[in-house]
Amino acid sequence: METKTIGKGDVIIQKGSHETRAYIIESGRVEVSDIVNNKKTVLAILGEKQIFGEMGLVEDKPRSATVTAIEDTRLAMISRDNFNELFEKNPKVLLPIIKALFERLRTVNKMLISKETPDVVETIKYEGIRDAGFVVLSGLNEISSEALNGGEMKINNFPFKVGREHKSGGLDVLSDNDLYLEDSPPFNVSRNHFLIDKVEGKYVIVDRGSRLGTIVNGEEIDEQFVLNEKMCEIIVGKQASPFAFKLEIR
């Protein structure tokens, strides 16, 4: 796997190019952007251990956004040939890429459902709280606080993914989370349950296709919830779930 250091301000992927490599950020940060209504719109800020460009490994369409280093950034790069070679010799190295592809598949599946039932994403049209300060997750009870090591967690990179910890031994290629919750049968938390994202400067909570759903401010969200206040409460699963958190923008 080749590594490369990119200088601040350098473009890594240009929208419309036929880039066919995936990138893992070893250090630094990058900005994903697009031009909307003749104006630059920042879609995401990615940091250490996050991945971008993974769809270039599996499709030949032009890239849909521009990715630029916003500070000096060190990247691990995987081409299609590298992927095939590593798959034969050292497949564990590819786990981050494979998990990213599965997450993209989940996202596409939910988008298809949304097109069939457009009303479920009506809340995305609300103005929402725009990027300001920083985002903090804290527990609303003892179990939830323990999941955050007894304190609170500042969220720096988006999307921030939450799901159930895998306990049966061995690797779990099908789950990909930043926060793993230790649950027991009958499970409240799905392996890939919900995520917190920042879309065009707005903070969004998205259920990732969980079995029991995600409740925000007392209501189960069908698809996406745009945060239009600086604080909300999140229950992972049904109302009686022991996993309850407060999300704040400070």
Tell me about this structure:
A hairpin with a 2-residue loop joins β15 and β16. It is globular, with a radius of gyration of 19 Å. Strands 10-9-19-18-15-16 form a six-stranded antiparallel beta sheet. Strands 12-11-13-14-17 form a five-stranded mixed beta sheet, with no helix packed on it. Strands 1-8-3-6 form a four-stranded antiparallel beta sheet. It is built from three helices and 19 strands. About 5% of the residues have low confidence. It folds into two domains: about 110 residues, Jelly Rolls (Sandwich); about 130 residues, Sandwich (Tumour Suppressor Smad4). The N and C termini lie far apart (about 40 Å). By secondary structure, the chain is an alpha+beta fold.
